[in-house]
Amino acid sequence: MKEKGTLYLIPSPLGGDDPADVIPGSVLERIRSIRRYVVEEVRTVRRYLSAAGLRGHIDELEFRELNEHTSHEEVSDLMNMFTDENGNPTDVGLISEAGLPAVADPGALLVALCHSHGIKVVPLVGPSSLMLALMASGLNGQSFAFCGYLPAKSDERKKAIREIEKRSAQLNQTEIFIETPYRNDQMLADLVATLQPQTMLCAAADLTTDSQTIVSLSVREWKRKADFRIGKRPCVFLILANS
User: Fold this and answer.
1) Is residue 154 within 8 Å of residue 186, measured between CB atoms?
2) Residue 3: per-residue pLDDT
């Protein structure tokens, strides 16, 4: 079997202008050594890599997209990136739109494929909005679950909210979920209207940036903040119900 390169899972900033504020120096050094990347969105990653020290060399890099529109056949074709035209092993970097690749991210498909082909996978250190929000929430960090996105329709979303609140109470488990930014305020309104008054609710927006906002209160207390708005900012929601 021909030797192949390594897949490096490269975190990206959650916001801000200087990657060095949240990305370790060792990761930035590794980034500068890789010439092939699988990315969720090329334009975003080009800006990131330029700020990370590759300004003036971006056109020398190879980018392939892996996002929600990528077919399974196209994902399989990405295996060709791990060797060059002469059959030599080539390292590949996987970068998400923000935060950790393969977490709430289609890049997990490539990671799974690499494992099945015996390609070494190396996760690198960087920011996770989910873990940062959990850290800052004051909710249960011993038992928690990520629920992804809740339904977009209000009635279905409220039903899902009641279900995860029930699970949270039964398991004493923090439930974590996210929302498309333009629906943040409707999500917050539905949470406050649907959850029990004693349930704890945290909204953590724009993490690691100058506009970072983290509010963790009981639903009863949230109802006194009727004028609070998250706006169209990346936000993580967390709840913990009383058993």
Assistant:
1) yes
2) 80
Q: Among the CATH numbers 3.40.50.2300, 3.40.50.10240, 3.30.950.10, 3.40.50.970, which is that of 129-240?
A: 3.30.950.10
| d(C-alpha 35, C-alpha 226), whole Å | 50
Domain residue extents for the chain: 7-123, 129-240
**How many other CB atoms are found less than 10 A from the CB of residue 59?**
6
DSSP three-state, residue 201: strand
Angle at 93 between CA 38 and CA 126, to 5 degrees: 115
The string of pLDDT tens digits covering residues 180-232 is 999 999 999 999 999 999 999 999 999 999 999 999 999 999 999 989 999 99
Beta partners for 39? 65, 95
195: left (phi over 0), alpha (psi -120 to 50) or beta: beta
Closest by CA position to 241, among listed 171, 189, 184? 171
CA dihedral 215, 133, 94, 10 (to 10 degrees): 110
Residue 108, SS3? helix
Looking at the DSSP bridge assignments, the partners of residue 100 are none
Got the DSSP string for 27-82? Answer: HHHHHTT--EEEES-HHHHHHHHIIIIITT-GGGSEEEE-STT--HHHHHHGGGGG
pTM over 0.85: yes
**In angstroms, rounded to a whole number, what is the distance separating the alpha carbons of residues 181 and 33?**
34
Class at the top of the CATH hierarchy for domain 7-123: alpha beta
